[in-house]
Structures are given as C-alpha cells and as structure tokens.
Specification:
The chain is mainly α. About 70% of the residues lie in helices and about 0% in strands.
C-alpha cells in the first residue's frame, strides 16, 4: 500500500507523467513520420514540429486533468504562460539533438545510418524529453498553475446501473433475496 500512499501524495506529478507519456508517444510518432518523409534532411525541425503538436495536446490534458484544481490566473494569461514555458521546453527538448547532430557530428556520412538513428533517438527523444519534462513540471507548478485547490474538485456520482456500478445484481438474485 506504500504505492497507493505515494500516488495520493504526488497525484499531480503522476497525472503529469501520464500526460507526458501520451505526449511522448505523440511527439515520437509525428517526429518519425516527418523525419522519414518530408523532413528527411531536417531532423531538428521534425522534432520541433512533433513537440509543438504534442504541446497543444499537453495544454488541454494538463489544464483539464493534471492541474484541474490549480489555477489562480485568468485563462488567457494562464495559456500565455503555458505556451511560453512550453516554448522554452521545446528549445530544451531540441537542444540535445542539435548538439548530437551538429556539434558531435553524429550523422551520415560521419557515422553509419543505424548509429545516427540511435544517437537521434537517445539525444532528441530520451534526453531532450527528460530535460524538458523536469523543467515543465517545475515551471507549470511555479508559474502557470501556482495556487493549489483554487478550482473545486468535481466528484462524479457513481451510477447505480450499468457495467461500472459497484454491485451488479441479476434479476434471479433479486427474486431470491426478496
């Protein structure tokens, strides 16, 4: 039960990580779709485009789920801060790939194609995402959604009928009990 306690204590961070996982997959799919097609010679641009699209998705999911009880700002001000922080995050996400490609020269013809792809994945997708994620979590809680429990928690009452009800009784059980 230590895991349950840990999740309850850090519920915002857990939700943030789940949103991050969804956006990680989104970024990776878009990055490789672009990199293997129209942006073949521009891997940093492909990664930036994938990250920008995932950032829009991230705003919606973080605003409405991860940090739904946080706030303290008007929505337009909050969105402007979110996208400003995210722009810094996009730069932090792209920086390791740019260093790998253009400073360390880990690209074809300097290295083989498999080495280039592994270097791109590790530097752009793994290291870049980790650095940007740590920055975003800190900045979102500090600047974008600064005040906890500003918006009320909404509890959805559980339905008594349907497949998700806590007790499902069949008609025959009702007749036997009654």
């Amino acid at each position: 039960m230590w895991l349950t306690t840990l999740v309850r204590r850090h519920h915002e961070a857990v939700k943030f990580l789940l949103v991050g996982g969804i956006c990680f997959v989104t970024t990776t799919v878009i990055n490789y779709a672009l990199k293997l097609t129209v942006l073949h010679d521009k891997p940093v641009t492909a990664l930036a485009v994938g990250t920008i699209i995932a950032t829009v998705l991230s705003y919606v999911l973080n605003r409405e789920w991860s940090f739904r009880t946080r706030g303290g700002r008007e929505r337009h001000h909050e969105a402007a801060l979110f996208f400003s922080v995210s722009a810094i995050g996009i730069a932090l996400n792209s920086l390791p790939l740019a260093v790998s490609r253009y400073v360390l020269m880990l690209h074809v013809p300097e290295v083989s194609r498999p080495v280039q792809e592994v270097a791109d994945f590790v530097s752009g997708i793994v290291i870049g995402t980790l650095v940007a994620m740590c920055f975003r979590l800190w900045a979102f809680k500090r600047f974008v959604f600064p005040q906890p429990d500003v918006r009320p928690r909404v509890r959805v009452p559980r339905a008594r009928k349907g497949p998700r009800s806590s007790v499902v009784r069949h008609e025959s059980e009702v007749r036997e009990a009654g």
